[in-house]
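Appendix B, example 12.
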Amino acid sequence: MMETNGLLKQSRIKEDTIEESFEGDQLSDGNQLIGEDEGETSIEDYQEVSNENEANQSGDADGEDPFEGGDSETIEAAANNSKEDTLEQVEGYDYSVVETEENTLQTTEKEPLNAYYASYGDDELVSLMKTESGQKMMREVVIGKDDRKKITGTSKYPWRAICSLKIKAKDGTSWIGTGFFIGPRTVITAGHVVYMHKHGGWAKSIEVIPGRNASSRPYGSCVTSKFHSVKGWTSNKKRINDYGAIILPENKKMGNTVGYFGYANYSLVNLLGLKVNLSGYPGDKPSGTQWWHCRKIKLVTPRTLVYNIDSAGGQSGSPVWKYKNGKRYVVGIHTNGSSLGNSATRITSAVYKNLKNWKNKYK
């Protein structure tokens, strides 16, 4: 669904530790220090845009943002990040592999491509996935042994706050993706989920299915056509600006039922080596099933995170989060894979501020 632009030229930005206070669950219960980004960025890249009124949107600069949010953490040495208990406890998973992970990349084989999307039940999508453009959706990779774990209890928090997405592009093609709630009506995902450059731009509609488990939809679903992203993605197709928001109608405040994630802007040293979780709806597993994996962040650039967490097409937009004192803080939005590993758009101060604006605007 997207093309990567490679690594980016490093630019100087302010590195604060900022956390958005957790407000979810309403009803219950590395190898390299700093990488470089390719290309320049500007204030305009972070200006938000919407499919409703793209021409008249204002934006936020990445720079001297004041502290806004919950508690801050003292700066820790990168070597100590991996000692922090930040992972979800998923039954049957061998957590020792997180400490001994290898960096060998294994790209997903082409043979099971039909199985990825045939189970979606859309003949048009199956045909599309046989084409070169359709195969671009499969940029993520499985790294080494595939030890992802299926989430069976998707009606529990935080799994129910993660959404399976069925996307209808403006040109009529169909796609799948993942998103996650950060507020009553705001679902965050990858920019290339809401805005597809080679398929008509803004998506025609997206069906949001929280906590989906195969054919089971414990919280129903909602179809919407209201989206946000930033100019860096919609106008310039910059990998570092690949994030967006799906907004549900006023009468569909599903986040108040399923709960939602917190999110955080952490400094470089607080991210390197941090153990993080990723869960979403990959296309290489049975249709509509949620799968979780975890690893350490192995490389941090000013605007991206790189890790050896296994993923597949369909997981674009998945949350990458840390577990802290009973709360969940998203630190990145999963987008794609490359020769360096799978990666996420990092929640910098500007991304944090846009997420906060989208959350507060649509309560």
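Residues 207 and 223 are 4 Å apart (CA to CA). The chain is about 15% helix and 25% strand.
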